[in-house]
Design a protein that fits this description.
The protein contains no helices and 20 strands. The chain has strands at about 5, 10-15, 20-25, 40-50, 55-60, 65-70, 75-80, 85, 90-95, 100-105, 115-120, 130-135, 145-150, 160, 165-170, 175-180, 185-200, 200-205, 210, 215-235.
């Protein structure tokens, strides 16, 4: 697998009334044997939640769960004692490890919340559950990639229990930026939030996804003011994951 292209219209759809969700990869009632994962990237759910509605308390274990609000805010509560509001411009991650429960609701009684929830398989299993949340300055991704999630424990990125990096870029029309891999043996999955891009000769539009496994860097050109997410993940599981 050198290249995978997932067009917006080919994603799975779940409409529960209060929740509308598009699934890039197989999830819940949407099953496609050819859309199970990209390396250790397991889930990209593009969710719209009605005012005051949300997900009641439910469990997770041994999964890295990243939430990125695009419009509005989410109210979060978990069994670790965290109670937070996560708003557009912030990124949240839960390393579920040995197990936790949490709930997340639209924090607004008037407006929808739109967010991405992304799952990555962990590097090490059964770690103590961990929570992280950080706000990012949009100016720092203007016409370049801004790293938001990384395996480096620092004040500038949200920590993930995996050799994975999440970066976002906001490119003006006609501008370009180069994404360079952090390490070898990884692939990069590009997900277009808005706009139109050309990446290594592939044309992508809103909510299209492109996974690339070959090459150390990828040139991204914007044909329209747009924003996209780059998710770099290992393509195979490490032995640490069995521990």
């Amino acid at each position: 697998m050198n290249t995978v292209l997932h067009k917006d219209a080919t994603r799975g759809l779940a409409d529960h009334g209060w929740l509308k969700s598009r699934h890039t990869f197989s999830f819940a009632s949407y099953y496609n044997p050819e859309r199970m994962e990209f390396g250790l990237l397991r889930v990209i759910n593009d969710d719209i939640v009605a005012p005051s509605m949300g997900f009641a308390t439910h469990p997770h274990e041994n999964m890295e769960i990243v939430s990125i609000p695009l419009v509005g805010s989410l109210r979060h509560r978990d069994s670790m004692g965290n109670e937070h509001v996560i708003s557009a411009g912030e990124v949240q991650i839960m390393s579920a490890g040995t197990g936790l429960t949490h709930s997340e609701y639209n924090n607004s009684a008037q407006d929808e919340v739109k967010f991405l929830q992304i799952w990555v398989l962990p590097k090490k299993k059964n770690i103590t559950p961990r929570y992280g949340q950080l706000r990012f300055d949009a100016h720092d991704r203007k016409n370049r990639f801004q790293i938001m999630v990384s395996p480096i424990d620092s004040d500038t990125t949200v920590w993930i229990n995996q050799d994975a990096w999440f970066s976002m870029a906001a490119l003006e029309t006609g501008k370009q930026a180069e994404y360079t891999k952090q390490i070898g043996n990884t692939g990069v999955y590009f997900f277009v939030i808005k706009g139109k891009f050309e990446i290594d000769g592939h044309v992508l539009e809103r909510r299209d996804g492109l996974g690339l496994t070959e090459g150390k860097s990828h040139l991204v050109r914007s044909a329209d003011n747009g924003e996209l997410l780059a998710i770099e993940v290992p393509m195979v599981q490490s032995q640490d994951a069995e521990r």
